[in-house]
Amino acid sequence: MKHHRGPTALLLLIVITTLILLWPLESRIEKQLTTLHKSKAAQADLTGLPSIYRFLQLAGLNALLADVLWMKADALFESTSWWEMAPVMEATVKVDPHFTLAWRVLAWHYGWNMFIAEPGRIKREQWLQKAADSYQEGTKQNPKDYDLWWDACFFYMDKVRQYDKAEEFLDRAHKNFPNRLDTIERCRQRLYERTWQVDKAVAVIKDILKKRPDDLIAKRDLEWWTKIGWGTEAGPDINWRWVLEVKENGVRKSRDLPAFVNPFEGTVVDIPPWRDKRALGTDYIDPNWIPDLSRYSLESVQMILQSRPDLAVMWQKAHPEVPLPAGILGKAMPVHTFTPPKTAAPPSTGRLPGEEMRKRMMQRRSEMRGRRAEMRARRGLGGPGRSAPGGPKGGPGAPAPAKNPADGK
Question: What's the pTM value of the predicted model, to 2 decimals?
Fold first, then answer.
């Protein structure tokens, strides 16, 4: 009878050696596990994921777990499993709240991908709120990360166009990053212009010129506001405020957002003569108020003239030497009436049909490639897709500055 003592003795030797090596770390591991159960990392929901994720969580290997979850989220994105990707990203930022790129992608995923994938307005508003909550918590956990702050400012300024929240974020970002002229400072200027806080807008323009005297955009904008009356006793031409508001409502309609209500109106800003609070659903603008657009170029007001032939006639009389594009004059005034649907719409399931949803997801896929490129470029600097302290900033994935509706000026 043969005895297999060789392999058994070797295995026993390995076990004893391992225990001897881990013995000095016993108290440290026990303390770490006790701390873990009280931390947010222990609250991360890893349901449905392989047991290795739970093992890393219990072992307190948060940085490694965050990296593994991040790669899992990337794989889900590649397979267009956007609904399954969201909880994995949530777990990632719970495990490592200082993983700033994960915060940026999570909030962007809520505010853009999931917003587009949802057909119902109520569901869309919920995804926007989740994006806002992510930006709030992400910037709280990482107050010095410029990219995350800029994403949050861009979200409030351009995506949801909540200008009171945008001002709050932009003011705090201005204190943290005072020399970001082409993003933070320019965005502050546009915010003040859209909400008709012209003195503040001009102050930002002058501050940009003080730091960068050859800034052509700042020079142009200062010349524009001076031309239409800033600095005079009468103040800037109120007709341009009407133009900005009509353009703003045009953008909001295209994005299924509520009509524009200036959050600073009645306190910091005067109430304009065309305001009609009773005109719900009609942009809060009195249709009987006729603006004077004769002093503005065709490029500045063409979009408005296309939908208001009555104003087009008045503008043409003031500028007989400038031919209007074909089709503007003689166009009938639009009549806004509500026509109820002939048949009731089928109840919403909360999700788009598979093919349609996939189509919308693929349209957004190219936008995500920049973020994945950033992740791969930073691999090896503290984990996949992550920057070590003092590492590179910006790069692909940071949104472009918000476009000003008044740039036609």
Answer: 0.70
